[in-house]
Fold Homoserine dehydrogenase.
Amino acid sequence: MDSHRLLKIGLFGFGCVGQGLYDILSREETLPFKVERICVKDPKKLRPLPAENFTYDWQQVLQDESLDLLVEAISDAEEAFAIVAEALRQGKKVVTANKKLVAFHLPELLALQEEFGGTLLYEAAVAGGIPIIRTVEEYFSNEPLERVHGILNGSSNYILSQIFLLQKGYAEALKEAQDKGFAELDPWLDVAGADSRHKLCILTAHAFGKTIAPEDVAFFGIDYLNDQDVEYAKQDGSVIKMVASAHLTADGELVPVVLPSLVDASDDLFVVEQEFNGVVVQGAYSGPQLFKGRGAGGHPTGAAVLSDIVSISKGYSYGYKKLHKTTNAPALALDFELEVYLRSTEPELVVALGLTNLQNVQRENESFSVLGTVTLGNLIKAQDEIRKAGAYIMALSSDFVNAGVKKSKERVHAS
């Protein structure tokens, strides 16, 4: 691309991210980029720009040969996939912020780029303004990684901060997150852990050279968290964080999981509060490094989109070095064991999870809480049953790698 002329952008979607990008570009007048066309879905929706700025047919934008690159920022992942896939078939340069789209379709998106010569970048899809994909892809391209884990959802982290720092109840904290625009239209994706799962799938491809289907990742959230669980966490000065984690076992098998976890002051993630995200990348030689930044909001995410626009206009594309190196992708470590706390009203969940090293914590009316050890395979198998039962489950430490039974013994004495 000619770096001296103004590069024209076709933008799909004008919500939080689309407007964030538009706003940044209108303020930064020295940047050689202009949003030339904006495609939205609903002609009746009130928008901050006059109606003549919008088109409602995405094919028109795709067929516009005067555009240099496309930015996809709509919320519907399937429609986003249709747009991005068609653009890549035409060999175009595309930037997306849609984590669900990338998580569910990465193998197809890779194949399309290879076949038709288009380019797709998606830094904004993971951890808002933190440049974590590029860091893992470039800086750690040759160093083996042992683990990548962190807080990948700003909305649920904001809610947990309100609960632990300001003693608010879950419902009040959720409403506040929605009022401030941190929680998505449907809070389920955020609070149930599904959004974190999508981001973890993307990170895993770059960190470990394995594309995993979201269906392979057990995920649990804070949507059933109650005061009893919060009090339990506070006993020894811990807080609860929703941790998304992928690591390799000594046998080279993969453990991907999203699980609320007890985090104490010695933990890197303890200081990640409010709508911030924090990602710890642990290199085999460089050790753990914490990357912290805003994980939600129009400007941080818009800034990540802008960074991709600049890179893609200069010819950058992901090398997927680890994906190309990994001939045999690692299997899931289904027998890997985690230490968990479970609160439920249904004793059969203990059986479904195959919990061992069982220890009772509390019994109150209909509900009971226990500690135990569970395998990754059983977590995956029983996750729908746990959700249906409205049960709450969390890890006793965010250190899934060395999660030994020592932790639960300590905690039982404390209770």
Observations:
- The chain is about 35% helix and 25% strand.
- The domain at 133-297+330-414 is CATH 3.30.360.10 (Dihydrodipicolinate Reductase; domain 2).
- The longest strand covers residues 239-248.
